[in-house]
Write a structure and sequence with these properties.
about 80 residues; about 30% strand; single chain; three-stranded antiparallel β-sheet; 3 helices
Length: about 80
């Protein structure tokens, strides 16, 4: 999983949904800034990340990122991701 993990962090920052084939998908939802009255503080906007094990269809985003970063053809990157 370390091979895939090295690519996930940057992709989650850019994409709203990222599927790891055979595992599931990470879904990011933007949340606006708000004022927390109980703590008397302003909470900045953020992205909440959730995991959905039902998202199994490979969207190719992870394999494409691996292909570009590792300098390998897409079919090889796809195979490396699926084997991981």
């Amino acid at each position: 999983m370390a091979f895939i993990d090295s690519h996930l962090h940057g992709l989650v920052l850019v994409h709203d949904c990222l599927v790891v084939p055979g595992l599931g998908g990470f879904v990011c939802n933007s949340q606006p800034a708000r004022f927390d009255e109980a703590a008397n503080e302003l909470v900045p906007p953020r992205r909440a990340i959730q995991f959905n094990e039902r998202l199994l269809h490979n969207d190719g985003v992870l394999a494409h990122a691996v292909a570009v970063a590792e300098g390998m053809p897409y079919p090889e990157a796809l195979q490396a991701v699926e084997q991981e």
